[in-house]
Amino acid sequence: MKKLIPMLLGSLIILNGCSKGESQEPNPETPNQEDPTNETPEEEEPKMVTYFTFEALLDTSESDDWIIIHDDEGNLLDFSPYEEGNLLTFDKLDNELSSTFTVTFFNYFVEPTGVLQHTIKSYPEISIGSTWKQTPEPLAVNEPIKGVQEGYFQIFVENAPAPKYRAISDKYGLSFYEHGWPYSEDIIENFCGIYRHNNLHYSFYDSNDELKYYTIQNVSHEDYLFVDYSEFKSYDSYVEIDIPFEYRQYPTYQFNVTAFESDEPFSRSGGIQILYVIFSQPLLLTNPLKFGYLDSYDRYKTELWFDLGAVVYNYRSFGAKPDEITIPKNATRTVIKNSIYQYEFETNVNHQMKHVSWSNWDSYDSPYKTNWNVYSGPEFYGKIGEIPQEIQQSYPNLGIQDMQHKGTSLYLDFITYPDLIQQEFVQPDQKTYYSSYEIFTLR
Hints:
Layout (H helix, E strand, L loop, with lengths): L3 H16 L28 E9 L7 E8 L4 E6 L5 E7 L6 E11 L5 E12 L2 E5 L16 E8 L4 E8 L2 E7 L7 E8 L5 E7 L4 E6 L6 E6 L4 E2 L2 E5 L10 E9 L11 E8 L9 E5 L5 E9 L3 E9 L13 E5 L6 E4 L5 E7 L8 E9 L12 H6 L9 E10 L3 H10 L10 E6 L1
């Protein structure tokens, strides 16, 4: 009836005007008229939504494990203990949720040494409706069997410069390694074992900063080989790496280039060692450092690890020869907010993911330790929620108040934060031990 009355009144006005012979416009602001569009719509009731689903597929028989969820302002949404095989769903009214949330894992176990270990990992900016699976970390597979030593041989390199690093390997991995130049004579003697394969690769990094190689074929037990250094060949291509010497007071470093044949899977210990260096002697470093590659191989493991105290650079790639490897120089970091719950900094190092670590463990004599790791995208500087009081009271040695910043790791290449979440939790079958990364850590 509320709609019919104004219509009837309008009709009467129009008819009245026509009877007088006058044209009269209706007044749209007539107070007795009601606009149906001004009706107040009914407010929708909040709906319960499942904002997160979590399946635990990790062995929890020796540990206490909790999952904790905060909104993007650090407010606690939910927390729960879990065991292997549990499927947990987390529900909230939609008006109680922010656009994203943070997932934190809390793990407690007693190490064989008796140390009480607390490990916390936080992952912010998770989308509403996400489904995760927690699975074990991938292990090295397809590891080759070097086998027992079947014999030995000696090789004498004549007219060679003093060596910095030397390595002899077969397709199943390293057979001989030595660093330094202990010889004053012009003949370099190497005593090397023979294992499953009698074709070997001899790499030689000399004191003139040249990296060369020699192929040893069909060697037999008790052979004595004499080779002039002029018979060593240059590699088909090199990647030169400029090392930031300004950080090099007490360096520890490892360099490794390993070639794999087309029918050989990637492995941790196998492959032909083109370059193998593990050392902490600055006098043996060279700048630029040379990594060698051969056109006859298209599958490589390339590793470079450099610990310079305040800075750590870690590069590992599986696949083709890298075009270049560049260690950031003159890196700066300015801390703006120095808190676990909201850590913010500025840096001149371009990165696509970051990992900030905190710990209260300063000594091997400490009876307990807590490590807190926060993984996020490069633009995230939001809030990380606190561990619920119920959990803190259950683990009195947690010691969060004693935690100190231990390092800010910037991922420069190969993986982004969305990639990490996808591989780690959404599709964990994609996880592999043989993954590539480039990480620059500022301590």
